[in-house]
Design goal:
The structure is a single chain. This protein is α/β, with parallel strands linked by helices. It has two domains: 219 residues, Rossmann fold (3-Layer(aba) Sandwich); 102 residues, Rossmann fold (3-Layer(aba) Sandwich), CATH 3.40.50. It is 34% helix and 17% strand. The chain has 15 helices and 18 strands. Helix 4 links the parallel strand 8 and strand 9. It is globular, with a radius of gyration of 20 Å. The chain starts with 9 loop residues before the first helix and ends in a 5-residue tail after the last helix.
Amino acid sequence: MQQIYFNMTVKEINKKYLLKSIKSGKTFKDSGWMLDAPDEEIPTLIQAVYNKKQIEVKNDSFGIYKFEDWLPICKKLNGSSAPVTYKSKGLAKKFGLTNLYITFSGYWPEKNALMKTCSFKETEAYSVCARMNNHQEKVLVVASAGNTARAFARVCSDNNIPLLLCVPEDNINELWFDEPINDSVKLIVSRSGSDYFDAIHLSNLACKLDNYFPEGGAKNVARRDGMGTTVLSAVTTIGKIPEYYFQAVGSGTGAISALEANQRLIEDGRFGNTKMKLMVSQNRPFVPLYDAWKIKSRELLPFDDNEARKQVEEISAKVLSNRKPPYSIFGGLFDALMESNGEVLTSSNEEAQIAANIFEESEGIDIHPAAAIATATLINAVEEKKIDKNALIMLNITGGGEKRFMKDRNLFYLKPILVFDIDPDLEEIKEKLEGLFK
């Protein structure tokens, strides 16, 4: 069992890393829960710059914290598991790929993958919550389409961290667990017919109250560097940086994280200087990132919110439904795609289901719909001869093993304590949320 250790002091944290504005390049100390660069008018992501340039990977008993050299954390929490990378045999053989590596985040005990929420969102939750100082008295607020909420609920419940979750009501079936969630975690929802962006709006209103603070999404360096452990797993297992990186995206934060990890690994000097080509994918018909990227627009193209909600209802990978992703912001997905000479691909529900079946038959484990979208676009890219069959490829399977995990287990579902309209009034939020955590 991992052990919690005492918080590092701010002075110790600033010896480990500084923060940097991606727009200006200016560095500054992390004085706490910093999400933005100080004194800069143009929106930009910030980045952790670690003092340790060559990572020392610890053994598996450390869970996600085996990569702690490049995580902006001040403590460790109980219960984490790291992504696992292995060389594909079944899927690779079926499509004639000689260097396909699969990075698996989920539940697959035979591979030592032990994420009980079956999603790589655990990499975010264990990093973000380990960035929090023990003396933080406010309530953490997280918005999610489902799997992020499941991961944060599990981590915060296990470690007694106060958490307010904001999720669309239609997605609450994703909030399943193998044991009850404790009272430190509370769920509020935007009513049926809403989507992920409506949940984000609800969370933003909650954060206007004095007792709550935002997790920060893509702006939180701990979230991105936690997700970047998928690439750290792949590269330290393979021994070199892949040529291609396949992942399905909703916000694109995972792809941004992959690029940042890639940059650190090049600076490490032991794994080559390859810049992975980011091959990110969306689920048709909801493809706002694809639409913008195909004309190389930094700004997302305008669309009707109600039409977008209808499209979200149609897709099988609901977690890929962000209407306001960090695409245009400096350091965001547009810049990551430009720097990596990347592509945005698309796949249908039907193609994804076929890919999921092929993956389970050839590799031996079930995968999430989003991971199936990524797999489908890899299959399409190979069949369309977009990539060489001898290329070094990383396929990021961002969730899987649910059937394996749920077998012979009783499940518990987190129920909402409040249901809000799609556009709630701030006074209503204030009235109902004040005193919720006592």
